[in-house]
Automatic annotation (TrEMBL):
UniProt keyword annotation of Membrane present: no
Protein's name in the database: VCBS repeat-containing protein
Pfam families tied to this protein: FG-GAP_3
Species for this entry: Hymenobacter cyanobacteriorum
Gene3D superfamilies: Integrin alpha, N-terminal
UniProt keyword annotation of Signal present: yes
UniProt keywords, alphabetically: Signal
Length: 430
């Protein structure tokens, strides 16, 4: 695959055929490239489509912006890549349901756009957009969605310096999405609390006193709240901060890596229900398996990845039930795929989870299905637990017998883990 200087990558089923496709924001190509998956992690030339955007895109996010059931995209671009000054632009492109993107919605931003994240921050059921701006007046802009993919005037949250990564998550347990932003040379991770209506406030931070690179949120210690994984110059590796449930964070682990991680994600790599740590920044993918309580095993490395990658995404690309990884390498002008426990260049995996003794159907699931059936449950099962990609319990369904209907209402598109006792299975909601 040959995108032109890809800075960012996203994984999503944009053509609604049941497998996960790849998208890359190409800095010197002035486009976003869509790579359609053939269902077995094959991305051939016939399935590649370029979506034009103005200027130089260096950030990317995907979500259903207009509420029509398919996944749209937003790319963040600016006029002077690598420079302090420049005009930013937010490029919104709508999906027709088959992975064909159109539209000319370009929202001007006063500074370069470095990072994007989507989330329903005002609780009205649609996805709002947050963008980090660099330049001489670094800030995070909050733009609320009108439900049709139209974004209103921004509210700006000033930051100490440009933020390379933004994360949304309910870190204080009040039911809405709060904001974490890692300032590159501001020496801190800034925390802003949501009042439930998309209004952010506060001055809390995690002080690192160094350059910060990558950031991820997940319930690493499985105590019901969201913890932080952070890559910075303070320690050549990943630092983990435990949440006390009230958004107060304490460093509890350090994971040594081959170099500073330019991208991090939390993903359940071995199917045990606990979020593991996956990152890159050297010429390999580096992963650490979670023991379920926030303790991590030794570093495991993939095979060589062409020209140290800048961004990564975890998804089941070959439809075998585990999470693979795709990477964007700017210097190499290419995307790379590493399959989990597969052929070619697999990621190492310790103690793979046994096949679930129960079944889920239909899969993949769609919200229009109302529910999926979980059948052949082990005798004595009292409840089925559903966890999201961050490891949080999002649904518990009581069981009386060996089968139960699992409601889909309220579950956003994505990958979930279904647990019945010690047995687990994955559920993809599209």
């Amino acid at each position: 695959m040959g995108p032109s200087n890809p800075y960012a990558i996203a994984a999503a089923d944009v053509d609604d055929d049941g497998d996960v496709d790849l998208l890359s924001a190409n800095s010197t190509g002035f486009n976003v490239t869509v790579f359609r998956n053939d269902g077995a992690a094959g991305f051939t030339a016939g399935g590649i489509v370029a979506v034009p955007v103005p200027y130089s895109p260096q950030s990317l996010t995907v979500g259903d912006l207009d509420g029509d059931g398919d996944l749209d995209l937003v790319a963040g671009a600016y006029t002077s890549p690598g420079a302090v000054s420049g005009v930013g632009v937010l490029c919104v492109r709508f999906n027709n349901g088959s992975g064909v993107f159109s539209g000319t919605g370009n929202v001007a931003a006063p500074q370069p756009v470095h990072s994007l994240v989507l989330g329903d921050v005002d609780g009205d059921g649609d996805l709002d957009l947050l963008a980090s701006l660099g330049g001489t007046a670094p800030a995070v802009q909050v733009r609320l969605n009108n439900g049709l993919g139209g974004f209103g005037a921004p509210t700006s949250l000033p930051m100490q310096s440009e933020c390379l990564r933004l994360c949304l998550g309910d870190i204080d347990g009040d039911g809405d999405l709060d904001l974490l932003a890692n300032t590159y040379n501001g020496g801190e991770v800034s925390i802003r609390f949501n009042n439930g209506s998309g209004v952010f406030s506060g001055t809390a931070s995690i002080v690192t006193n160094t350059y910060n690179y990558a950031l991820a949120l997940a319930d690493f210690d499985r105590d019901g709240d969201l913890d932080i994984a952070l890559s910075s110059d303070n320690f050549r590796g990943v630092e983990l901060y435990a949440n006390n449930g009230q958004a107060s964070f304490l460093l509890f682990a350090r994971l040594a890596t081959l170099g500073n991680q330019t991208s991090l994600t939390a993903a359940d790599l071995n199917g045990d229900g606990a979020p593991d740590v996956l990152g890159t920044g050297s010429d390999k993918v580096e992963s650490f398996l979670n023991n379920g309580t926030g303790g991590f095993g030794p570093r495991m490395n993939s095979s060589y990845v062409y020209f140290g990658p800048r961004d990564l995404a975890a998804a089941d690309l070959d439809n075998d039930g585990d999470l693979d990884v795709a990477l964007a390498s700017t210097a190499g002008n290419r995307l790379s795929v590493r399959l989990n426990n597969g052929t070619g260049a697999p990621l190492a995996q310790l103690n793979p989870a046994p096949a679930a003794p129960f079944t889920i159907s239909p899969v993949p699931a769609h919200p229009a299905d109302d529910a999926v059936w979980v059948r052949q449950l082990p005798a004595g099962t009292r409840a089925v637990l559903v966890r999201d990609a961050m490891g949080r319990a999002v649904r518990t369904v009581p069981v009386a017998g060996t089968a139960v209907a699992l409601p889909l209402a309220g579950l956003r598109p994505g990958l979930y883990l279904v647990q019945a006792g010690s047995a687990t299975a994955r559920l993809m909601v599209e």
